[in-house]
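Sequence in, structure out.
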Amino acid sequence: MPGLTWSLVWPPLLAAMAALLVWPLFGPVLALALFAACLLVLLAHHAVNLRALARWLVSPPGTEVPEGSGAWGEVFNAIYESSRMRSSGQLQLNAALERFQRAAEAMPDGIVMLNEAGQIEWCNPVAETQFDISNRRDHLQRITYLVRQAQFTDYLAAQNYAEPLVMKSLRNPDLTLSIQLVPFGDRQKLLLSRDITQLERLETMRRDFVANVSHELRTPLTVVGGFLETFEDAEHIDMTQSRRHFQLMHDQTRRMQGLVDDLLTLSRLENNQEKMSEETVDVRALLQVLYKEALSLSDGRHHLRLELATDRKLLGNARDLHSAFGNLVSNAVRYTPEGGDIELIWALHDGEARFCVQDSGIGIEPQYISRLTERFYRVDRGRSRETGGTGLGLSIVKHILTRHQGRLEISSEPGKGSLFCACFPARRVVA
């Protein structure tokens, strides 16, 4: 700053020039006294301004800049401009940091900032919930002291963060987390955690589904393949015995066909992109058809009764409703012992439309009821295969009722029978 330098230099020079002018006229003593007096005045001026500068520097932000003349005025202005620019930059930095924290807090994944020593510097609310930690309480606490799991500690120590770590939460065994560390900055780390519980459940369901389909198809294929090998190796075929073999192969083929049909139906129902076509369904006419089908399936082994307590119709898909109601009816016929009673009921209850199938079968234990709508779930696998069921019927019923905003209610008591009710909301009931 050339102007500031000149402002500091010219007062001593002016005093020296005055002393030189006085020297020839009044002698050296008076000249030196005048020079010393000028320097004392200049020193006092600097002392006063230095004191003002010191007070201003320790004063609260926003205090008015002291008045200064000459070089000190330029110094005060330069410091003020520098402070203002620094304050503006600090405000911008604080605003950016606040935006980052708000964005991090809004993220669905957990975020934990760790320093070089593995201590918590900051975490968002999701991470607090997933790891049971607190941003305030656990500040600068080692993460390994709070998350005491061997696999987590080994993951941190290995320093191989290319692949995420999948682990169960000790505090919440139903929670599955995918954890990955991302190094950044000056040997800091960002701990990212994601709740993949639902993905794990879907993957487990997929594996079980593939295993169950393979198991269900293996038995009929084995039967058909075994008979074909027998016919291939036989020199003389006994037609009387062969008719029984053909019948068994036909039954197993129908079983595989039923399984494939149910799988296709379930796949169609689970396809959310397919919009359901709706119409007014005459439930009374539909149930009369199902009642005749039930009589044919029962073949006189049960006492069947149809009760149509209302003439209300439903807004829905006729094909899907026929499939859902048909599954409930066929299950009752299959799982009710010979001589048992089966009742089909169509009625209104508290504004809802309900189709109920009541049977006098052996009933179901309470602990199994909640799982009946799972694909391929069977309380008694042996009995289910004897009756020809695919294990997908109630799963199909559940999906169809969900598409109709309905629900399936199941109540059963061992030794006294079961009651399955398909319930539809009032907005789907048509007068």
